[in-house]
Every structure is written in structure tokens, then in C-alpha cells.
Amino acid sequence: MKKLQNFLFFPAVAGTILMAAACSKSLDNTEMTPVDYVNPYMGNISHLLVPTFPTVQLPNSMLRVYPNRADFTGDRLFGLPVIVTNHRENSAFILNAVSGNDRILKPIEEYSYDNEVIKPYYYNVYLDEENINVAFAPGHQSALYRISFEKEGSRYVVLTTRRGDLKVEGDRITGFQALDDKTRVFVSMEPEVKPVEFGILGADGKVDTSVTTVSGDTVSVVMKFDESVASIGLRYGVSFIDEEQAMKNCQREIKSYDVDEIASYGKGDWNAELGKIKVDGDDEDALKVFYTSLYRCYERPICMSEDGRYYSAYDGNVHEDEGNPFYVDDWIWDTYRATHPLRILIDSDTEADIINSFILMAEQMGNGWLPTFPEVTGDTRRMNSNHGVATILDAYVKGIGKFDLAKGYEYSRRAIEEKTLIPWSARPAGWLDDFYKKNGYIPALAKGEKEFVEGVSIWEKRQPVAVTLGTSYDQWCLSELARILEKDEEAEYYAKCGLNYRKLFNPATRFFHPKDKNGNFIPDIDYRYDGGLGARDYYDENNGWIYRWDVQHNIADLISLFDGNENFVSALDSMFNVPLGMSKWSFYSFLPDHTGNVGMYSMANEPSLHIPYLYNYAGKPYLTQKRIRTLLDQWFRNDVMGVPGDEDGGGMSAFVVFSAMGFYPVTPGLPMYNIGSPMFRNMKMTMSNGKVFEVVAENYSPENKYIQSARLNGKEWNKPWFSHKDIENGAKLVLVMGDKANKNWGAGCVPPSANYEVK
Predict the structure, then answer these.
(1) Which of 127, 327, 678, 718 has a CA-to-CA distance to 350 between 20 and 30 Å?
(2) Secondary structure (H, E, C), 114-146
(3) Are residues 91 and 185 in the same domain?
């Protein structure tokens, strides 16, 4: 069984730099550092769809692993991991260790296991039927295993690849696994102790020592060690360039076969990153939720640069990085909302490198289209819209200028104009796109009408409301970039396109409502249920109640469509109170992403993240404060079910980080932040320029969630928002808290919306 203390408390590694999150001690009286609060098991059992994974890696590193098992509750490991190449995918290569004489070996062993310990920088597990202890510590492009045997007999270590080849070179195993037709990941593995023999694993489970090279779909190399060897260290490097580079990566990073030593370096790396934000509070579970969420923001993207070179699947070539590391594996639809804005604050150089990577991808693909889902194997064009433009605009207006803005604008524009808006598609623009350009919305199919547009997925559908709203936002971002670049005509054109969401607003219902190609609203729509699986006939993954608020850039205009603040607030309140209207199993059978329900609100999916902050725009900041604290308390917990839905590599976790600090970037592209309700007594963020932004909650307690008054840099502050300029050179925001709402604070100064200059 998995011991509870293994995922509720991680003791510190002695000798590392202490960057205390709070003045607290662990159970063994050692000082707690930020990474000690990380619980990789948080959310490992999903509410419905994909859980979190207990990832072991260094921040944004190319090498990531997590246990090879069916799910957290499974009691079998399927070998030991070597590298996870894409977020939430299986490991490339599998390592196995067994002992005993005349063993029938397998390419992938099924292990019963116990006493598992996972930290961001360390993994340890006991294979209880084999009586083998495994310890692991990663570098950025390499790692070290320590395998300790208790049984008598010969010791065997087996390395398996699927769709690749392996070969023995001296005392080293090298090889590759093909991820697709053009992308390969390479490995170079070196044992601490010289094997008594190498061989190739045959189909009969026996070892053929006469052959040292093998290729195929599932092939394995075996290292046999003498039974006198009690413990074996295995260091290895990985590369997307070649075997030689994999060896260099290993030799550069893993200079010792001491797992504890390598882990101590990893702990230092994690504390350097997590320690950029220091929070202080009395609730240890809140600290663990916070730092675990921050750790999730470093799962990806991953840095592909290896000694100044990188492999790019976007043209299949190896390039010099010219001092600018190349990053991949970033699902922008999920991460543009909060993960990228968080990185702008605490690691702007990396954010600039990521944006430069997007620009390079557009060039390398040959079409000049900014990517939407840049993965290790290329841009998979998943989800809808083209939100990379928001990351570019947001970075630039917050002071990051280390990328070519003109190229960023042009490749964003071409992705929206020349690539189809059909979800999950990389086709050139066609009929639906021409219709959108002429009419300002994506048409839905009339009831009973069959799909006639080539390229529309039978599964993903048109998603007409989601695509129209998302593209309106993207085009507003384009208009702002064009204005900065003094392209006045284009700025004016895209600003008008940024209002296209109005085309689908139904004044009779005050919902965004699908229209057919003749301009008629689809009749008899139930915004809770209609739209088929995932509501994709009309919306995407969430129902019409969630997309009712999907106008991130122009909340002021959205309020005007509701005919004022009172109607807007009433509609927000209704969303949190409208019942499912059917059994949960029925509701989730067609809306499986729409979990974490509070009425019709879904805490489990990214389009919902900004919604609780919208009360600020209608003169009711105290309701934002109430909602945020309630949602954080209800849905994010320090346990294995502590995440309400898919955590897409920081997409949801960055919401937790921001909201717990007390503010949130509702509109990437506008350099300002909405104030919510801080979870901690004190927060100090060391920003990219070395300046410190501090949030102090006076009268701090878990019950005191309402802001009574505020001061920014010593001056009275009555706005429920602040600008990036207010904090970029360091600042101190003091929020005086209480247990009952001050309904007047912040009510008279709403946050800015589109076409408003933030000062």
C-alpha cells in the first residue's frame, strides 16, 4: 500500500540552501523549504477524466518521468520509466531489473510495489515481490538509477525500446525510439559496475550473447551482473539529436553514482524556482496546495537545447540555438490564460525564449502560422482558436521585448487569416473561414442538417460559439499589436473583428447562442445540455453557461449587452445556483470535462477560470472575494483527489497560484490584474528584474476573506485591480481583511476592458 506520510510530508535534504516558505518546522524539526511542501500525488485520482501525474523532473527540463502504471490506484508498475516525451504520455524506453538464476526475462516486467516515495527531484520504490529497491534522481537531460538487490542469484537489467534499435558499445548501451516518422529520442546508458555479459533478449526470454545490436517494434538489451553485486548504479542521458549527444548530456550532468548527491542538486534547482514566491500562513495544507500548484507550472514547456543545439520536429532538422533555448510541449489553449502571465512576472527571460520558439516554429513549418499546440513531435493543432497571439501581446505590454514583435504579429495574423478556424485542424482556410470573414461568426448546423464542410472532425465538430468568441479575442489581440506597430488600418479592422462576439449574443436570453448559416438562432436550445458530446456542436467541453462569459477582453461591453450591472450580477449568481437538472452520471456522460460543479459553474476547465473575478467589473468586488475563497477551499486540497479536473501542465494550477496570492490576470494582453482574496498572511514575489512585490493580509485568518480597505505603496487604494506598471519596480499591497464584506470597497472603480489605456 502507499503510505499516507509519503505524500503528505517530505523531509528536507540536508545541506541544501534553505529558502523557507514560512517559519515552520517539519516533524523531525528541520526547516521546511518550498519544495518540501510539494505533494506530487495531489490530484492523482481524477474526478472523471485525466488525473495529475507525480512527475519527477527539474524545472522545465527535457527529461521527465513518472511511474509506469495504469493509474494511481493500480498495484502494478510496468517497468521503470526512462523519459516521458510529451505531457501525459507514456515513457519512451522501459528499464527492468530482476534477479535469480536462469530467469525467463521479459521486455516489460510487471512489478508489485510498496513504500513509494516521490518528490519533484527524487523517486524511490520497493519492488516487493522481486525484493529490489529502486532509487532515482534526474538531471535536466540525464538521470541516475540506483538498483539494490536482496535476492540471491544473477542480477539482470533490461533496457527496452519500442519502434527503435539498441546496441552495445563497450560498456554502454545506446539506441533510439521513434516517436513518429521523423522524431527520435536517443539514449546512452552506462552502468557503474561492468556487466559479466551483454546480450539481446530473444522471444523465448533467453539472452543471446552473440548479438549486440537489435532493431524492431519491441526489442531489448540485457546486462547481466554477478550475484556478488548488491547494488548497481545506472546513469543515462537522453537526446533528440543523436546517441553521442545523449552520452555528452549524461557525462556533463551525472558525475556521480550517488543518488542522494544528484537529488540534492535537484532540490536546490527546485528551491531556486519555487523560492521566487514565498508565502506565510498558518494552514500547512494551504502551503502544500500552493507550492504543489507552482511546481505544476514547471512541468512544461520543456527546454530542448542541448549544448547550444536543438532538434526541431517543425522541420525535422538540428539547429544552433544562438544563445536562445528552444522550448516545446506547451498546450497554449490551456496555458495562455495564467501560466504564461505567471512566467512573465517571475521568469521573463524564459518567457521570451518560449515566444522566440513559437516564432521559429512558424518559420520552420514553412507556412508562417504561429503554433497552437507545439509538442515535441510538432504542432498538433489541438483545441480551437489561436491564442499564441495573446501570449505575445501580454509579454510585450508587460515589458518583455526580447523577441521580434513584427514577426510575432505577422505569424499570428497569418495563423488566423490563412489557416482554417476548424478545431483540431491544420488545413488552409476554406468555406467556414470565408463565412466568418464575411459574417463575423462561425455558423452552426441547423437541427437535422448534415456536415458538409470538408475537414470538420466527426468528434470535435465545428464548435461555432467557442470558435467565434475565441477568435474575437484573438483578433482584438491582433488589433493591439497592429496599433503598437503603427499599422493603423489593420488595427482598426481587427478592433472591429474583436467585437464579433456580439453577432452571437441573443438579447432575449442573454446567452451566446449558435446561429445557422442563414443568420437564424438555432431554436429550442437548453444551454445546460444541448450541443452533443462535450457540447461541441455549439461550444467546447463546457456548456453555454460557461461560454456566456467568454469575452475576456471586453467585460465592460459584455455588461452593456446584459443591460447593466444588476442583470450581469444576477446572471453570474444564477450560474452558481442552477442545478444540473439530472443525475450526475447522466450529465457527465455528455459533459465529462464539466466537473467541479457549483451549479452550472465548472471549476475543472480553463474557460471557467476568470469567471469568479467578473464581479469586480460590475461593482461587486466582495462577491469576487467570496467566490474565490470558496472555490479554492472546496476544490483544491492536499490529497489524491485534490484537483477538480484536467490539470494541463500548469493551465489550472497557475489559477491556484495567482488566486492564493490575491490577484489574477483576467485579460492577457491588458497589463493589469484583478484583486481577489489572498490565502496567506504574507506573499513576497521576487520578480524577473529582482524587485519584490509583496501582498500583506492584515488581520489574516482563514475566515477573514473580505477586504475592508487597502493601501498600495502606503497610499489608500480603492480599486479592485492594479496595473502591471504599479508593481513592476517593486510594490507593497496591504489588504486589511475581515470576516464580513465591506460592500463599498472597490465598488466605484471597475477594471479596464478593451480599448482602454491602462495607466
Answers:
(1) 678
(2) EEEEEECCEEEEEECCCCEEEEEEECCCEEEEE
(3) yes
Concatenated DSSP letters for 162-197?
EEEEEEEETTEEEEEEESSSS-EEEEEEEESS--SE
User: What does DSSP say about strands 91-99 and 155-169: parallel, antiparallel, or unpaired?
Assistant: antiparallel
Q: Express each pLDDT in 697-721 by its tens digit.
A: 999 999 999 999 999 999 999 999 9
For residues 222 and 352, state if they share a domain. no
For residue 330, the enclosing domain spans 323-424
- Of 335, 333, 309, 305, nearest in space to 320 by CA: 309
d(CA 30, CA 24): 9
Q: Is the peptide bond before 301 cis (omega within 30 degrees of 0)?
A: yes
CA-closest candidate to residue 54, choices 109, 18, 10 = 10
CA dihedral 53, 58, 64, 70 (to 10 degrees): -20
Q: How far apart are CA 426 and CA 371, in angstroms?
A: 10
> How many Cβ atoms are within 10 Å of 228's Cβ, its own excluded?
7
List the beta bridge partners of residue 515. 521
**Alpha carbon distance 608, 547 (integer Å):** 8
DSSP string, 595-623: -SEETTEETTSGGGTTGGGGGGGGT-HHH
Residue 129's pLDDT is 97
DSSP state of 504: G
Q: Are residues 418 and 338 in the same domain?
A: yes
Return d(Cα 87, Cα 240) in angstroms, integer: 16
Residues 243 and 357 in one domain: no
For residue 547, the number of C-alpha atoms closer than 13 Å in the C-beta half-sphere is 33
Phi, psi of 406 (to 5 degrees): -65, -40
Cβ neighbours, 10 Å, residue 298:
26
Determine, yes or no, domain membership for 513: no
Q: Tell me the per-residue pLDDT of 205-248, one tens digit each, with 9 for 90 and over.
A: 999 999 999 999 999 999 999 999 999 999 999 999 999 999 99
DSSP code of 419?
B
Cell numbers given for 345 = 512576472
> Both 348 and 236 in a single domain?
no
Give the residue from 245, 274, 303 where a domain finishes.
274
Domain count, the chain: 2
Of 709, 718, 700, nearest in space to 742 by CA: 709
| Locus of grid cell 556478488 | 228
> DSSP letters along 57-111, please?
ESTT-S-EE---SSSTT--EEESEEEEE-STT-PEEEEEEEEESTT----SS-EE
Looking at the DSSP bridge assignments, the partners of residue 379 are 374
Same domain, 268 and 337: no
What beta strand segments (E) does 306-438 contain? 309-312, 317-320, 327-328, 374-375, 378-379
| pLDDT at position 19 | 30
Using CA atoms, how far residue 506 sits from 263, 432, 522, 552, 752, in Å, is 57, 21, 11, 18, 24
Q: Are 171 and 192 in contact (CB under 8 A)?
A: no
Residues 6+ apart with CB under 8 A from 274: 19, 34, 35, 38, 291, 294, 295
What does the alpha-carbon distance between residue 298 and residue 56 come to, in Å, rounded to a whole number?
11
Residue ranges of the chain with per-residue pLDDT less than 50: 1-23
User: Distance (Å, rounded) from C-alpha 279 to C-alpha 37?
Assistant: 11
Q: Is residue 638 part of a domain?
A: no
- CA–CA distance, 714 with 733 (Å, rounded to integer): 8
pLDDT (0 to 100) of residue 16: 30
Nearest to 543 by CA among 523, 563, 525, 562: 525
Residue 634: CB atoms within 10 Å:
12
The pTM of the full predicted model, rounded to 2 decimals, is 0.95
Sequence-ordered alpha helix ranges (H) in 425-501: 431-439, 464-484, 488-497
- The whole-number pLDDT of residue 757 equals 65
Residue 26: the pLDDT is 57
